[in-house]
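Running this now, will post back.
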Amino acid sequence: MVHSRIHRWRAIVPAALLTFPLLVAGCATSGPAETPADTSTPATPVEAAPVAPAETSDPPAETETQDEPEAPGAIFTEAQATRGMTIFDEACAECHTNNEFRGRLFQSNWGRRTVYSFYRTIRSTMPDNNPGGLEEQVYLDVVSYILSINGHEAGEAELSADSPMREVRIAPASEG
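Update: finished.
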């Protein structure tokens, strides 16, 4: 009799150990269990409290408003964009192509967002093995390069932390 109990446990324990992670994973991915609705008492509405948005790696979408001031002109120089291209080729091209940062897909994701939003995102997430670990000027130069390949015109002043990045969209203003 004792022998048969041990034999049963030897069969049950490995099966339980194999299925337990699956059950836990299923619970983690399926969300809270649904309970049947109680139809005997109507639910009393409860006023929802405001909830702060969760931090994500994607920056919030920024949209234009009608009372937005006129965007300033060029905010980077040709020399800065050239430095940015060199940095991109040396540091960023290990994981990215410059085609990722121009074209329809890039414009649909980033075109209406500000230069500051893009700068903030790459500064806090790149490079992958050392987020935020580069000099500020390196990030500014790479952003200048990205602006240049998206049709922004170079100007007389370099992009800096004091530049009006919050007023300039990634997509250049269309003429006409």
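The longest helix spans residues 2-30. More later if anyone needs it.
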